[in-house]
Amino acid sequence: MTMDIPVLQSYLADQWFGREPLDVLLDASSGVAAASTHAEKPDFAAGLHHARRQGVHGLLALDFQERAQRLKQLSKHLSEHKEELYAWSTHTGATRADGWIDIEGGIATLSAYASLGSNELPSGNVLHEGPVVSLGRKGHFVGSHILVPREGVAVHIDAFNFPIWGLLEKFAPSFLAGMPCIAKPATSTSYLTWALVRRMLQWGGLPVGSLQLVIGSTGDLLDRLDGQDIVTFTGSAATAAKLRANPNLLSRGVPFNAEADSLNSAILAPDVKPEDAEFELFAEEIVREMRVKAGQKCTAIRRIMVPRRQLEALSQRLREKLSKIVVGDPRSSDVQMGPLASKAQQADVLAQLQRLRKDCATVYDGGEHPFAPGAHAQTGAFVGPTLLLCERPSEVAEIHDVEVFGPVSTLLPYDDMDEALELAARGQGSLVATIATRDAATASHAVRRAAVHHGRVLILDAQAAQESTGHGAPLPMLKHGGPGRAGGGEELGGLRAVTHYLQRTAVQGSPSMVAAVVGEYIRGAARIESDVHPFRRHFEELQIGESLLTHRRTVTEADIVAFGGISGDYFYMHFDEIAARQSPFGQRIAHGYFVLSAAAGLFVSPAPGPVLANYGLDTLRFIKPVRIGDTIRARLTCKRKTDRRKTDAQGRGQGVVTWDVEVRNQDEDLVASYDILTLVAKRNAD
Ligand code: NAP
Question: In angstroms, rounded to a whole number, what is the distance separating the alpha carbons of residues 546 and 538?
Answer without folding.
Answer: 12
